[in-house]
Design a protein that fits this description.
This protein has 366 residues and is an alpha+beta fold. It contains two helices and 15 strands.
Length: 366
Amino acid sequence: MSTITKLLVGLVLSITLSNLQAQTQEVDSIQKEKIDSKIVKLEEEKSKIEENEKSILKLKIQKINDRLDADEITAAEAENLKKEAAKTAVLNIENRTVIIDKQIELIKRNAYNSDQYSKDDDVGFTFRIGGDSSEHDKFLYLGDSSKDKPRKYDLRTSSDLVFAFGFNNTLIDGQNLDDSPYKLGGSGFIELGYAWKTRIFENTNFWRLKYGFSFQWNKLKLKDNNYLVNTNGDISLQEFPLDASKIKFRTTNLVFPMHIEFGPSKKIEKEDYFRYSTHKKLKIGLGGYAGINIGSVQKIKYKEDGEREKDKQRDQFEVSDLVYGLSGYVALGEVALYVKYDLNPMFKNQVVDQNNISVGLRFDMD
């Protein structure tokens, strides 16, 4: 091997080893920052333990005082219960603090070694099943133990997906549903959204506020070969010139419902938390909604000269931009009977006054 070749090989090896060393140092620095961050988080959690336990103790003492005021227990019994609650709080603080101290010691003893950097740098791993799904609490936790937060003592707000479907039609001034130009079969609605439910009062769950957002699809299937026609902004029904196999009209709305929900519930009391459960209880919700129309379409299927044709007419019918109405539901268990009625006219300039109405089932009951 020539002297020049040896020099080039030596230079390449030197540069390569230098780059590898720099990359290793960079990785070590990044891993060290991650571990330091874990320790900081544990120290922060440790500092919050006393505050958390004191908050729980305060609520327990308030509950004992309420029982004392209601003459359910004597003053001596109340004092003993308070001492027991205080003793529990002190032991909880000590035990929880020791656990975190041990985790920090374990990290400092092992994790800073370079051969540990390639391992998972999670402080710990937790698999926990707690409570039951009717308590609106964290039913399953799987992951980093440092992020496994204790359940809140009092959880006043819960949330659910909203799904509803059923029959859809219109109420027309001076006509019964039997006389409606829209078929009962084939006319339907679907609602999909998200809702929150908040207990209104501090010491009772009888009254709740339910609110959120939903997308509503209202579909009408037209009778007697009629279809919707826009004549200079006036919306009317006319007979389609050909024999149509199917004529449907659909609106899509984004609305923000709000209901006052009321009904009995069961109070579930544990050592460090309590919940109100409405599982399998009677629930009644009364309220309304407001929002906007985000689209409309009329679909017509027919044959012309023996060929199948399909027309789609989008946003051509002067549908009311603002959507608002009344709604309500009654449930005994998981499913509710649901009714909604649009107070706004379906079209801005309609020859015949008509308002959309829907009746069906709703599946966001807990």
